[in-house]
Design brief:
This protein is of the alpha+beta class. Helices cover 28% and strands 27% of the residues. The termini are far apart. Bound molecules: adenosine monophosphate (AMP).
Length: 352
């Protein structure tokens, strides 16, 4: 009997961890990624070295796989749809469509009854001036598409700030201005939905960012049970509205009164869910593989408190320190060069 094969578009560390989880459940994996010997291909059965939108490569992937998934949200929607014509593609291409544009994303969230920051589409300097006036001169200006890890953003902290030239300085691309959210902390929930509609959520993580990049995720988050329940309910509503299959990451701002404002969704496994591989029996990676393969979802219960720390750039030099720590899981991504801002690995320390 040939073993079922899962195609993964994207060859980074998330694809690598998905491939490892897939192997443990007897699935073969094929990675579609233009960069040869990418982190995911190092642990997968095969790599198709080609652009994500290469029609011949997509057809080759579809022919060789039983189901196709992806590890990043900027997979061209047309590529996902081409694959979906002949194979199940999970999460559904619609989720990519919603998550790739911050304006579409916010409108979709609001349509599900999920609160976001106030926002305005900004397609010119005049739009920006009007939007800033609406938000009292404060706000966060972001590119609508292709932004990640705080890239493509400018913060306006007071009405005194000079916004002239700001539209052109962001590259003349479509932008969004979000109202500035004076949050108390940032949290995320990692949720999974099975083909039969069952939803399970991992515990809510509290996240700290540095220079726009996730630095730590700590469990438990310092939030009330009610705030945690609201986060899980928001994820459930969103997953149902997208007729979603797989794992999703949903980031929120927590206000002083415990209220939640959704910031971003990622239709994939998420950095703020890496702790699950050490502090739960079933990780977010296995959960995603189970969901897309049509297997029953696993128990998301957390057996330990923990803190996950990303190893970014030169942080990798502290590897000997981490390797010497008790109750600490070290996970490296197979990247040779430690460039600034590059995610090289992560560690999860179990606290109790
Ligand atoms: P993002 O790329 O949207 O996740 O933004 C990166 C980080 O910038 C977030 O994790 C927040 O710390 C901060 N940030 C983003 N949007 C806002 C906002 N509307 N108000 C205040 N801080 C924000």
């Amino acid at each position: 009997m040939t073993l079922p094969t899962i195609g993964i578009i994207g060859g980074g560390q998330l694809g690598r961890m998905l491939a490892m989880a897939a192997a443990r459940l007897n699935f073969r994996t094929i990675i579609l990624e233009p960069q040869a010997d990418c982190p995911a291909a190092q642990v997968a059965n095969r790599q198709i070295v080609a652009a994500y939108d290469d029609p011949a490569a997509l057809d080759e992937l579809a022919a060789a796989c039983d189901v196709v998934t992806y590890e990043f949200e900027n997979v061209p929607v047309s590529a996902a749809e081409r694959l979906a014509a002949s194979r199940p593609v999970y999460p559904p291409p619609k989720a990519l469509n919603v998550a790739q544009d911050r304006l579409t994303e916010k409108r979709f969230l609001n349509g599900c009854g999920i609160e976001t920051a106030g926002f305005r589409a900004v397609d010119s300097q005049a739009d920006l001036a009007a939007a800033l006036a609406d938000f009292g001169g404060k706000g966060v200006l972001k590119t609508r598409r292709m932004g990640y890890d705080g890239k493509g953003q400018r913060v306006f902290r007071s009405a005194d700030e000079d916004a002239s030239g700001a539209f052109d300085a962001m590259g003349g691309v479509p932008l969004i201005l979000e109202s500035f959210v004076a949050f108390e902390r940032e949290v995320s929930v990692i949720a999974a939905r099975a083909i039969d509609g069952t939803v399970v959520c991992f515990d809510v993580a509290e996240n700290v960012h540095r220079n726009g990049i996730l630095h730590t995720s700590t469990l438990p988050a310092r939030i009330s049970d009610e705030t945690a329940r609201t986060a899980r309910e928001a994820a459930s509503k969103l997953l149902a509205a997208l007729d979603y299959v797989g794992v999703i990451g949903m980031e929120f701002f927590v206000m002083a009164d415990g209220g939640l404002i959704a910031n971003e969704i990622a239709p994939r496994v998420h950095n703020s869910g890496h702790w699950t591989e050490a502090a739960c029996v079933i990780s977010q990676f296995e959960q995603h593989i189970r969901a897309v393969a049509g297997l029953p979802l696993g128990d998301p219960a957390r057996h330990s408190d923990c803190v996950m720390t990303n190893l970014i750039g030169d942080d990798i030099d502290s590897l000997p320190h981490w390797l010497a720590q008790p109750r600490t899981l070290v996970h490296l991504y197979g990247k040779r060069d430690a460039r600034p801002g590059r995610k090289m690995g992560h560690v999860t320390q179990l606290l109790r």
